Amino acid sequence: MDRTASPGEPMSAALSETSFDAAPPAPAPAPQQAMRTGADLNVATKPYAVEDRAKSWRLLTEVLVLIVGSLVGIAVAPWWPVQLGLAVFVALLNVRLFIFFHDYLHSAIFVDSKAAGVIFSVTGFYMLSVRSVWRETHNYHHKNNAKLIGSAIGSFPVLTIGMWRSIDPGKRRLYRILRHPLTIFFGYFTVFLIGMTISPFRRDAKKHWGGPVAMLVHFALFVLAGVTLGWLTAFFLVPLPLIISLGAGSYLFFAQHNFPDIKLRDRRAWDYTFAALNSSSYFKMSKLMHWFTGNIGYHHVHHLNHRIPFYRLPEAMAALPELQSPGTTTWRLKDVVANLQLAVWDPEQGRMLTWSEVR
Fold first, then answer.
1. Domain ranges of the chain
2. pLDDT, tens only, 14-57
């Protein structure tokens, strides 16, 4: 992970040649650049919203080769522990592949590439995220990031303490279920199978016909692998990597918009730049995990300008001082628990309350 540069210390003034008694004059302080906001800050990010097409293809080819090679390894491995290890590896690679899909639909990479369009159409079916649904929900999320009312489409809902107190017990139970750790970590079933395939199809079958097709593809692949290679091997090949990767992806998405330092505004005071920098986290992790997660941990940078390719997000953060003081989270257990304990927003205190505080 690239380190963010800190301002350099001024050099000491040279000793006077004519007098050792008088203190040397202090250098004039360098003028501080005002922090940019709004359109000015967005303009400052535009130099980084430029794709290196050759690099995009090279990185995509690498991850596809690793995924295919690992799946072949699962199919031929004679011992289940090896298959399990490879399945976990495929799951991590799936997260990285999803970021390519995500950036492609943001027009950050492979713009107007027909070959990439085919690849990512297939990826969408593989990831239970067909293009029509992802575009509709995720674009809405970006345009309404962290609005207290109306932002739940494409994201986990957040109520204020006043809203929580005003709703009936049934709606409270539903809200708890939607933010429950099991709902998040079993995102393959809850977020993707139900939220990204079944629900959109029920809402608009003509537009979102791809959801049921994706479900059939998963079922057909599992049955085909089970009949030809055995059911344990089929489990390691198809559902397990996806259960792990989509569960991890669901938590990543949750933690990037539900962390203790988050700041929220109501619709009247909502501001795109403020939401990007204060309602989206920087997920600190090792270089290896940043690689597997496609730098999506630089989420505040991504929300400021979604046209920045994922491999340029660290570069943008390092170059722009305005991006270097975000709210953070990590994979440490205490941070995971802290995120999952968050319940509702308290406008008076200006923070998220935990479940223990709202009981």
1. 50-358
2. 333 333 334 445 455 445 567 877 788 989 999 999 999 999 99
Mode of pairing for the β-strands spanning 351-354 and 328-329: unpaired
Q: Which two tokens stand for residue 128?
A: 């239970």
Contact present, 294 and 308 (Cβ < 8 Å): no
Residue 327's pLDDT is 94
Q: Give yes or no for a contact between 343 and 352, defined as CB atoms under 8 angstroms apart.
A: yes
Specify whether the CB–CB gap between 340 and 326 falls below 8 A: no
**Residue 307 has which token pair?**
């046209």
- Residue-wise DSSP of 169-227: HHHHHHHHHHT-HHHHHTTIIIIIIIIIIIHHHHH-TTT-THHHHHHHHHHHHHHHHHH
Which tokens hold the place of 193?
Answer: 């199978």
Distance CA 266, CA 347 (A): 9
Return the structure tokens found at 161: 């303490």
- DSSP per-residue string spanning 245-306: HHHHHHHHHHHTT--TT---B-TTT--HHHHHHHSS-EE---HHHHHHTTTTTBHHHHHH-T
Give the DSSP letter of residue 128. Answer: T
What is the reported pTM? 0.87
CA dihedral 104, 249, 308, 277 (to 10 degrees): 150
**328: buried, middle or exposed (CB in 10 Å: 19+, 13-18, 0-12)?**
middle
